[in-house]
Specification:
Elements (H helix, E strand, L loop, with lengths): L2 E8 L5 E9 L3 E11 L2 E5 L2 E4 L2 E4 L6 H26 L11
Antiparallel strand pairs: 1-2, 2-3, 3-4, 5-6
Amino acid sequence: MEINVKIHSLHPEGGRLADASVSLDGCFAIRGVRVINGSNGPFVSMPSYRSGDQYRDVCFPCTKEFKQEFDRAVLDAYQQQLTQLQRQEAPEQSGPTMNM
């Protein structure tokens, strides 16, 4: 199965690190996927709704193996986007040029 992830926004600070959409084989789209800053590092949060005092996922992977594959695809896309942003914000590494 082909998993395509699009990171829509990055939030480097705070609890929510990124918002994403995921397409499965170009046939099924999931909006509202989030990368959350947890105590053990970033994790993927599926779209959910509140029911009483609990949150329930709207959609979710049905097997442990696919959950791992799905999460890895989202976290990899997040890391790539974060690395790209850091490269764009990094100052020039070369020293000053002297004209004589």
